[in-house]
Structures are given as C-alpha cells and as structure tokens.
Amino acid sequence: MELTEKQINAIMRAVGQLTWHGKVIPYERNWQDKAATAGTNNHEFDKVDPRRIRVITHAACYNDVSACTFIYIQHWNGRELVEDEGGVAPAIGEIVRFAGMLVLPPNGYMAVSFEGCTSGDDLYAVVSGYDVLLEE
Hints:
Jelly Rolls; four-stranded antiparallel β-sheet
C-alpha cells in the first residue's frame, strides 16, 4: 500500500488531533554491531504493526572504526527497498542522516546498509518518530 500525497497530508493533519486522544506512541530504536563482518552488513528495524502507521522523523548511522564505501538509509514501501539517504565514502565517524517526514505503511520498515566494511567495524544506527494507531 503506497499512500498518496493527499493521504499523507490528511494523516499529518490528523496527528495533531490524535495526540490529544493518546493515539500517538513515540518510536525509537537503536542498533549497534561491534563486530561487523567484512563486506556488506544490513539491518532491518521492526515492521510496523498492521493496525498502525509509523512516521519517521529522524534516522542516522555511522561506522566508528573505518570508512565504509557506502552507507544507506532505506525503507520498505511494500514492494521494494527505497533509498532515503546515502553517503558515498563517508569518513570514519561521519554520520549519514535522514531528517524529514516519512510515512511507513503497515508492515513497512526502515533498514540500514553498510557496504565495504572491514572485519570488526563498530556500526551504529538509530531511527525515531512515532506510531499512529489506526484502530483500537
């Protein structure tokens, strides 16, 4: 299910009203891998519950040991992984981040991908926003 811009705007208007009724739940997940393998390391954050939508307002990731070839922040839109932000050859500790408004449908999820890692890299990622309950 892909939402149209009109639907997303309606959801955003409704979020303010829902907040007063307790139907918005803060969402934040942190991930780290302090013993990454050489090559590509991927992580998928938890899927959105079928009775919710998730609004992502911030995502960030970095490698604290070496410089990866690429770091991607992505989301699953129901059909494919879509790149939201990517960093080509970020320096050691350089943060690749997404800040904005991204609406994930039920069963959608955020993902990060670190390409060109060396064995033993320390990888970190965080996503935050809120879940909106569609029904009780």
